[in-house]
Amino acid sequence: MSLRVHVLGSGSRGNSILLETSEIRILVDAGLSGRQIERRLQAIDIPPKTVSALLVTHEHRDHTQGMGVFARRHAVPIYITRATARSCASLLGGDEEIHYYRPGQPVDLGDIQVEPFLTSHDAIDPVAVTLRQRSSGLKVGIATDLGTPTVSVRHALQRSHLLILEANHDDVMLREGPYPWSVKSRIAGRHGHLSNRAAAELGRELMHEDLAGVVLAHLSQECNSAQLAYETVGGSLKQAGLRAPVWVAIQDEPLAALDVERLHAAVRSPQLALF
Ligand SMILES: [Zn+2]
Ligand SMILES: [Zn+2]
Predict the structure, then answer these.
(1) Per the structure, how many domains does the chain have?
(2) Phi and psi for 115 in degrees, rounded to 5?
(3) Quick one: which ligand is closest to 9's CA?
């Protein structure tokens, strides 16, 4: 009945997260190269061929770069919306197994129920997902590439036990950073990315007594740092009473495996939480 999450890598240059139970292994996005995803899976003793499904959230390269290669090489079925599949047709060779999913329509994969939901982002048909293990009731919310946390995003992520949340940029670093004005306003806009400040606000709203861990993800290379994201978002959540741990995912290395069941037990039991 175990439920583990491996953030293989996250940031503006590529995102890929693996969720595994004793029944199934699901990859969310393939934004690293096919080879890099293989390497990172092998490093945690997961043969790429044992991945049962690849969920794709939107067509941006930092979520799809390795999609076609990985799916073809290891015969992994792709779950994607119809419009997103059309917009990244060049990555697909035509012989992949494709399943179309839609926001608001849950998909059952092994003991996991996947719920794709619509996000506000400058892609053709962007979604984020929650994954709930039916036997344990444990829920993992993965939401990056959020221009603004809409009502549907906030609703979908409610009562997640593990939250993987975008903390893309620091407002000041973005304002004073190297990008041209048009890029800055795109990133900060309603269809861009979530700032540390906005992530803290959303995180505080989503806090509940069973929230067992928060991962800050999709950090901008130029306009954020792991320390700043941790201090701003983590600090704000801790101040609001969060007892659970906060991690920052980085681009070039996987985060240590997160055992959601164990994290949940620790947050439910104050004695365990002391250690
Ligand atoms: Zn994107
Ligand atoms: Zn992205």
Answers:
(1) 1
(2) -120, 105
(3) 2
If residue 111 lies in a helix (H) or strand (E), which one and from where to where?
A: none
- pLDDT classification of 6: cutoffs 50, 70, 90: very high
Q: What spacing in Å lies between the alpha carbon of 147 and ligand 1's midpoint? A: 9
d(CA 12, CA 220) in angstroms, rounded, equals 5
pLDDT score for 269: 85
Question: Distance from the CA of 138 to the center of ligand 2, in angstroms?
Answer: 25
Structure tokens at 158: 């409610």
At 274, the pLDDT band (50, 70, 90 cuts) reads low
Residue 12 alpha carbon to ligand 2 centre in Å? 6
Domain, as residue range, for 14: 3-273
pLDDT digit string, tens, across residues 74-116: 999 999 999 999 999 999 998 999 999 999 999 999 999 999 9
pTM, entire model: 0.96
CATH number at 46 reads 3.60.15.10
In angstroms, what is the span from residue 218 Cα to ligand 2's centroid? 7
Taking the CA of 120 as reference, the closest ligand is 1
Please name which ligand lies nearest the alpha carbon of 119: 1
Distance between CA atoms of 142 and 139, rounded to whole angstroms?
A: 10
Q: Tell me, in angstroms, the distance from the centre of ligand 1 to residue 145's CA.
A: 5
- 177: CB partners within 8 A, 6+ apart: 184, 222, 223
Ligand with the closest atom to the CA of 220: 2
Taking only the tens place, the pLDDT of each residue in 9-68 is 999 999 999 999 999 999 999 999 999 999 999 999 999 999 999 999 999 999 999 999
Q: How far is ligand 1, taken at its centre, from the CA of residue 3, in Å?
A: 27
